[in-house]
Amino acid sequence: MASSFAPILARATKRAGGAKELDKKLPKPKSAKVLKAVGDDRYLSLMSLRIFRAGLKHSLVDAKWPAFEKAFHRFEPRRILAMPDEALEACMKNEALIRHWAKLKSILANAAALLAVSKEHGGFGAYLAGWPATDTVGLWADIAKRFQQMGGNSGPYFLRMAERDTFILTDDVTAALVAAKVVAKKPTAQADLKLTQDAFNQWSEETGRSQSQLSRILALSVG
């Protein structure tokens, strides 16, 4: 059982310059209703954006994203799957895009996977909204299994971009978890991930805060 979140919150509040300043820094996840209302194309666009951001300067990728939206039919999954092989090969010659073959191919593979999830759950947003909040690490694992290039922190960062409640194991969050004696090192093994999930579940019940907010508070308490 993790210790109380109160000392962590107190440190973060002091570092932020007070409760009001802290609140300004905290993410506010979307409700299940709002998540369900977002179209599959927007989720595929965000997922692809996260994939291309990995290892690159975000501003560079973001500046090119309108060209990606045009080249990939605004990320409408069925239109992407109808693209001929020649169209994808042409993307490697398009200087307006980031010409990374494996990441470009992942858009097609992920369009197919997202359609399958959407059919199974009545929309990709419904899939995200319906996954239990107490099993965030399970959602990460499921996304990594179903989609290409979505392992490691890519799944959590995608969820944060989509404003679906999640914590993220950044260096600062990991340092705070170690300081709180939840884990001894960055949680990667299943046993440590379970300990981390259990701590977030306990703290969420204790404080009434979302896991996204708890994650940011942890980071602010040490950063």
The CATH superfamily label of the largest domain reads Hypothetical protein, domain 2
CATH topology of the largest domain: Endonuclease III, domain 1
- Beta content: under 5%
Roughly what percent helix? 55-70%
Output mean pLDDT: 97
Order of helices and strands: HHHHHHHHHHHHHH
Inertia-based shape: elongated
Draw up the topology in text:
Elements: H1 6-16, H2 19-24, H3 32-37, H4 40-53, H5 58-71, H6 77-81, H7 85-91, H8 101-121, H9 124-130, H10 136-146, H11 154-161, H12 171-179, H13 190-207, H14 211-222
Helix pairs in contact: 1-14, 4-5, 4-8, 4-11, 8-9, 12-14
Notes on the protein architecture:
- With 223 residues, this protein is mainly alpha-helical.
- The chain folds into two domains: 6-29 and 167-222, no CATH class; 33-154, Endonuclease III, domain 1, CATH 1.10.340.
- It is 67% helix and 0% strand.
- It has 14 helices and no strands.
- The protein has helices at 6-16, 19-24, 32-37, 40-53, 58-71, 77-81, 85-91, 101-121, 124-130, 136-146, 154-161, 171-179, 190-207, 211-222.
- Helix 4 packs antiparallel against helix 8 and helix 4 (40-53) crosses helix 11.
- It is elongated and about 60 Å long.
- It starts with 5 loop residues before the first helix and ends with a helix.
- The mean pLDDT is 97.
Provide a concise account of the structure shown.
Helix content is 67%, strand content 0%. With 223 residues, it is mainly α.
Q: Could you name the key traits of this structure?
A:
Endonuclease III, domain 1, mainly alpha, 223 residues
